[in-house]
Amino acid sequence: MEKKSNSDYVIAAAAEIICGWFGWLGMGWLYVGNVPVWATLFFSYLAVVVLAITVFVVVGLGTLGCGWFPLMCVAGPVYILIPIVSGMKLADHVRDTGARGSFGHILAVVLIFVFSCVVSGFFVGLLFWGVSSGL
Questions:
Q1: pTM assigned to the model
Q2: DSSP state, 2?
Q3: Quick check: 3 and 11 in contact, CB under 8 A?
Q4: Angle at alpha carbon of residue 53, lines to 50 and 56, rounded to 5°
């Protein structure tokens, strides 16, 4: 029996790693249709990134910049490794389960994200317009 070549695990792992480095961890899981894992990874990683930025700002201001280097020695490798580990786990998942990828899942999330940005930008614009016009 000949084994079929499956590139879905390569695409999923690459999407997971590359998007993870840009703060969108979980995109590979979304590509294969595992929405619960995607949501968990995406929102928890987003919270960690926001927390890390807050800590960097507070420590940086509190130490006049001297505290950034020790933080980066820890946070830098972790920030690089988390998407790689998630991508490796995803590749194993796809190989073990035979999950198939679909760019439609990613396109749906991107469209929802863009739509929410446009809508929230519209309301923020209305708020600033109202404040600036004295309403």
A1: 0.70
A2: P
A3: no
A4: 150
